[in-house]
Write a structure and sequence with these properties.
eight-stranded mixed beta sheet, eight-stranded parallel beta sheet, about 600 residues, about 20% strand
Length: about 600
């Protein structure tokens, strides 16, 4: 139901109780109320934060056919209730709009969910090589591990972080050999920009000589300067992934995708993103949607190397400027470029050297680009020419310059329409670049969750104190008159919405330091950055992101109000229930 129709009918029902009318008029009004205005469900007795600036708070919400038909108080909701209406008592809990994923990888998040958990504290327990080896050994004896190994033929762990390991360096193939020498094994860095393979894994990937040049990537060497030590960076790692993916059957791929969706839903996301889909990923997502409606919406952005899938897929209905449309909960939304790597892994492309260069690099090391200037210019121009929304991964400020230069050229050629071009991450965004974002109408999707996970590492090793304090400068973006979205980049981290919100608001590191206090935002601004502002980023602000009449009935029920509690406690709030299109897709055992 569109907004104007709903408001007209609510007004009609209200007026029928205030003014006299004939029997026939009363019968007509009652019939309309019964046929059109009887709510399927009404949520009552809660603290409802609408994220609608014109109507910020409510105590009742009514829904019908998966859409919101009323927002207000209990008195106004009463005429919409009948015997068939479910009355859901929120018992004083807090309801907010469903969270919209500004940038994540919901398909690959399924691999994280099923593989060995190698994350450090607080999301896992791996802070040393010994703990890493023990974690994989324990996982491979579990039912999940046994199934994974049977289905893929590989041992896989996800989430190790050299910055949090006692050894402060990457594990190598030699470490992985302690787990298995006869089966291929791969562990994935928490940034998802590096992988470590054992000897069997390297053999299957065809990697025998570390001197081989890989554009936009690197194969690390043993002391002899020829033998690969197992660590693969960026495009070298992405290329080697094919050896692992080749052995996975379609049924298990669909299973993993389903696990990724459920992982997002348990953190309150009613719209997830697959932020870099290769051809095989598009095939898996389309096959899953063909089986039936997905539990939550998934907006998928194809890697530029797979953009031919756009015109051949039933799930691509044009970019947001042409109108959006989901098919069984899936839509292909645009194109993704990746210009550089990871700051915590020291492969992001900076304009100034790293504070402490990585092993094997000199003091002038600034990282490197994953795409040439010619490639970036051509792909951005192509996206503009075909009216395709483009998302561009840039962590380093040098990469951001290359991206913005390309946007400027394309805008001169094709005009500056409402394209909603998106800068993804923008971690080392400089203050002078914020003005260019505004001028070129590029929306920043920032990553302030890094302040918690890697803030101390950025300060001590990656960027140094001054540059580290300015990562993801959310306050300066707002003060420049722009909006931003805040993301988790799962499976880089768990798709933990409250961790995202807490870090965006407080910028507190693992050690308890506030990193860049002048870049903090209010809890309400932080909530907007995971609801209405990413909905705008997706061209979906008219149907998602706030609790308003006419929008989808997408809600999250929380254990506490993030706007009123101590901001330091926001990350501890639990998602109790996730509701998509009026249907519960996740319910916490305590609900």
């Amino acid at each position: 139901m569109i907004k104007s129709q709903a408001l007209t009918l609510v007004a009609l029902v209200s007026m029928s109780g205030l003014y006299g009318c004939s029997q026939s008029e009363t019968d007509m009004s009652s019939s309309m109320a019964e046929e059109t205005m009887v709510a399927d469900a009404v949520y009552l007795n809660g603290k409802i934060i609408t994220v609608d600036d014109d109507n910020p708070k409510a105590t009742a919400v009514a829904i019908k056919n998966g859409e919101i038909i009323y927002v207000g108080d209990v008195r106004g909701a009463t005429p919409l209730m009948a015997d068939s209406t479910r009355q859901i008592d929120l018992q004083g809990r807090t309801m907010v709009p469903g969270f919209v994923d500004a940038h994540g990888h919901v398909v690959s998040a399924g691999i994280q969910a099923a593989s060995a958990n190698l994350l450090p504290m607080p999301d896992g327990g791996v802070n040393s090589f010994v703990q890493l080896v023990d974690a994989v050994k324990a996982w491979k004896e579990t039912a999940t591990g046994i199934e994974f190994i049977e289905e893929t033929g590989w041992l896989v762990g996800f989430g190790f972080d050299d910055s949090q390991l006692e050894e402060q360096v990457f594990p190598t193939a030699q470490v992985l050999e302690q787990v298995s020498q006869d089966k291929p094994m791969m562990i994935i860095h928490q940034s998802s920009h590096f992988g470590v393979f054992n000897r069997k894994g390297l053999e299957l990937a065809g990697i025998t000589d570390c001197r081989k040049e890989v554009p936009g990537g690197s194969i690390r060497c043993e002391a002899d300067g020829q033998t690969p030590n197992g660590v693969l960076e960026e495009n070298a790692f992405f290329g080697a992934l094919g050896a692992f993916q080749a052995g996975i059957g379609e049924a298990y791929n669909l299973n993993l995708f389903g696990q990724g969706i459920q992982n997002f839903a348990r953190f309150g996301y009613t719209t997830a993103q697959e932020g870099r889909a290769f051809a095989s990923t598009v095939t898996t997502a389309a096959a899953k949607a063909a089986q039936g409606a997905l539990p939550i919406d998934v907006a998928l952005y194809v890697d530029y190397t797979a953009k031919d899938r756009l015109d051949s897929s039933a799930y691509y209905t044009g970019s947001g400027y042409d109108g959006i449309g989901y098919n069984n909960g899936l839509r292909i939304a645009g194109v993704k470029l990746t210009i550089d790597g990871s700051p915590q892994g020291k492969t992001a492309w900076l304009s100034q050297p790293y504070f402490v260069p990585p092993e094997g690099q000199d003091k002038d090391y600034v990282g490197y680009a994953a795409m040439t200037e010619e490639q970036v210019n051509a792909e951005v121009m192509d996206a503009f020419a075909n009216n395709r929304q483009v998302l561009v991964h840039c962590n380093g400020d040098a990469a951001i310059d290359r991206f913005l230069n390309a946007v400027e050229k394309a805008a001169q050629e094709y005009g500056q329409e409402d394209r909603r071009t998106v800068l993804i991450h923008g971690q080392t965004l400089r203050k002078d670049q914020i003005g260019r974002l505004e001028t070129l109408d590029v929306m920043p999707s920032l990553f302030p969750m890094h302040t918690f996970y890697w803030g101390d590492w950025h300060k001590e090793s990656v960027l140094g104190p001054k540059r580290a304090a300015y990562i993801s400068p959310t306050r300066d973006v707002l003060d420049a008159g722009m909006i931003f979205s805040s993301h988790h980049d799962a499976p880089v981290a768990n798709p933990d919405s409250m961790r995202v919100l807490g870090a965006t608001v407080t910028r507190v590191t693992r050690s308890g330091e506030v990193l860049g206090p002048d870049q903090r935002v209010t809890p309400y601004e932080g909530l907007k950055s995971i609801t209405i502002w990413p909905a705008y980023q997706h061209f979906e602000e008219n149907v998602k992101g706030s609790i308003e009449v006419g929008k989808q009935a997408d809600f999250v029920i929380l254990s506490a109000d993030p706007l009123s509690i101590d901001p330091l406690s926001i990350a501890d709030i639990r998602v109790l229930e996730t509701i998509n299109d009026g249907q519960t897709v996740f319910e916490h055992p305590d609900m």
